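Changelog-adjacent note: as of this version, every example in the card shows the full chain rather than a window. The one below runs 69 residues end to end.
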Amino acid sequence: MALLGTANMDVRSLFLDYEIATLFYDQDSIRQVESWTQETLRDCRSGVPEVSTLRRLFEAVLHITAPLV
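Full-length structure tokens:
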């Protein structure tokens, strides 16, 4: 079996965002899902890039001024 769909299983997502998934049980569809997944993973990188000092400063200013808007 293969399950393909959104993965947000919290209450808000289930009731407001209409989370959905599809269950595949035939071998051909499962192979296609697996092939697509492997192809997608080849283009992925792990980790989170380091944020620049300028961006941190900009976000800090936004956090301070956001309540004023």
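Structural remarks: The chain has a mean pLDDT of 87.
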